[in-house]
Hints:
The complex is a heterodimer.
Chain A: E1 2-8, H1 13-22, E2 29-35, E3 42-46, E4 49-53, E5 56-65, H2 70-81, E6 89-95
Helix pairs in contact in A: 1-2
Chain B: H1 2-10, H2 24-28, H3 30-44, H4 55-81, H5 89-116, E1 148-149, E2 152-153, H6 154-172, H7 182-205, H8 211-214, H9 223-241, H10 257-276, H11 284-312, H12 317-331, H13 340-365, H14 373-391, H15 406-439, H16 446-451, H17 453-458
Antiparallel strand pairs in B: 1-2
Helix pairs in contact in B: 4-5, 4-6, 4-10, 5-6, 5-7, 6-7, 6-9, 7-9, 7-15, 9-14, 9-15, 10-11, 10-12, 11-12, 11-13, 12-13, 12-14, 13-14, 14-15
Amino acid sequence: MKKIEAIIKPFKIDEVREALSEVGVVGMSVSEVKGFGRQKGHKEIYRGSEYNVDFLPKVKIEMVLSDEKVEEVIDAIRNAANTDKIGDGKIFVVPVEQAVRIRTNERGEEAV
Amino acid sequence: MSAHKTSAKGLCSHPGETRFIFPQKWLESPKWFMILALLAPLGLLGQEGDGGIDTGDTAWILVSTALVLFMNIPGLALFYAGLVRSKNVLSVLMHCFVLTATMTLLWLVCGYSLSFSTTGMEQGVTNLSSFIGSLDLAMLKGVSGDTTEGTIPKLLHFAFQMTFFIITPALMVGAFVERMKFSSVLWFTALWNLIVYTPICHMVWGGAGGYFADRGVQDFAGGIVVHITAGIGALVACIVLGPRKGYPGAVMMPHNLPMTVTGAAMLWVGWFGFNGGSALGANGGAASALVVTQISAAVATLVWMFIEWIKHGKPSMLGAATGAIAGLAAITPASGTVGPLGALAIGTLSGVICWYASTAIKQKLGYDDSLDVFGVHGVGGFIGTIMLAVFMAPGFGGAGEADFSISSQLGIQLHAALITAVYTAIATWIILKIVAAITGGLRVDEQEENSGLDQSYHGEEAYND
Lengths: 112, 465
C-alpha cells in the first residue's frame, strides 16, 4: 500500500477530484493548507505598511492505494492539476504499513 | 455653535420676529431669497409662534440623532474592529459599544450642562462661564418636552449633542487598540470627555459669551470640538501607552476588511446627520452641509485611491475607505460655511495630507497610532478648520459676508486650533497619568497581549469554528 499526498492549487480541486474518480479512486481526504515553495509569497500593503505574505493557500489531498494503482493516479493528478506555471504543487508517495477499517476491523488493502 | 445658530435662525420659516433677523447677506443673495420665498407659505401654516417648536426642524434632527448614533454603533465599531487582529476584535467592539452607554449617562449627569448651560455667559465678556458651563442643567433639571432650544425641543438638542459626546472618545479607541486595559479605557474616556470635550465644546458651541464663539471661530459640526480633540488625544494616548508588542516588525494585517468597509460606508451615510444635522434645522443650511459633505468624501476617496495606484501599483479598498473618512472629517468644520469649490479643495487636501500623515510621517516618527486616528481625524480636522478660512470667502462660493477677510479669519481659526491642540495634549497626558495610578498601569501584561484581549479581558472569542 502507498499513501499519496498531493498539494495542488485550490482552484484545481474539482478537476482533480473528477479525474481521480475516473481512474477508480473511491475515497480521499482534503484539507486547506498554507505553505511556500519556489513560487514564494507576495507583498500586501495596508495603509502604507508592507507585509510579505510567505504562506500561500493550497489544497492537500491524501489517499491510500494499492501499489499498482499509484502510477495511474499520479498521472491523473498531474494531468488535471497542471497549469505549466510555477506553484502547481507536488505529489509525494509514501509506504503505508497498515490500514484498519474501524467499523469491521478489516485490515490491509481490504480496508482502503 | 455660532454657525449652528446662524443657519438655524437665518432660514427659519416661522411667521414672527425671527423672519427679520436675517443677516443682510442672506437677503441680498437671490439663492437664499428664493428658498425663503418657497418656505414662507409653510411658515404661515406653522403650528407654533415665535420661539415654538418647528416640526420640520424637529423631524430632521430626530433623524440626524439616529444617524450619528448609527455612526458609532455599529459604524465606527465595525470600521475599527475589522482593522485589528482576530484575537482582539471583540475588545474593539466592546469599547465602542460600552462607551455609548457610559457617555450617555455622563452626558445626562453633567456633560450636557457643562457643555451647553449658558448661565453666566455674556457676549463680549470673558469669565469662567466662557470656558465651562454651570451645573444647572445637570440631570436635565427643569427641562421638559415643551422646553425649546431654537426651533427644536431642548430634549432633542440634548440627544443630538449626546451622540457627538459618544463618538468623540470612541474615535480615540483606534489609537490604543489591542493593548489597553478595559478598566483604563473606561476611566480614561470618561475623564477625558469631562476635562477635554466639555470645555472645548462649550467654548465653541456654548453660545454668545463662549471664549471661541465670541472670537468668531467657525466650527460647524466639530472639526475643533470633535476631530482635533480626538486626534490629539489619540496621538498622546498611543505615545504614552507605547506601541503594540512587535510593532512595527510583526505582521499586523487587518483581520476582516469587508467589516471595515461596511463600517466606513455606515460612517459615510451617518455623516449626513453629523454635518447636515448640525444646521439644527431642516433648511437650506442642512442641504448645503449635506452636499459639500458628499463632495469632499467623494474627492478624497479618489485622491487617496489614485495616490496608492501610482505609488504602489494597486488601488486598495482600504485606501479608498480611509480616503472617504479623511474627506468626511476634514469637511466637518467647514460644512456650514463653504460651497462646492471649497469642498473640492478641502477633500483634495485631506486625501493628500492625511495619506502622508498616516503612512510616511507615522512610519518616520515610529509612534503606533494603530488605526490612524491622528493621521485621519486629527489631521483632517486641522485641514478643514484652517482651510475654511479661505473657502468661506464669498469669492469662493462661501458664506462669508462681502467684507469677509481671509487673513483675519485664518488667524482666528489657527488660534482656536492651536489652543485646542495644546490644551488637549497637556490634559490628555495628565489624565493618562491619573488613570495609570487608579488602574495600576494602563497596559495589559505581555501574556494577555499575546493571547488577545478578547480571551484575556472578556472571556470569549470572536470566531469559534
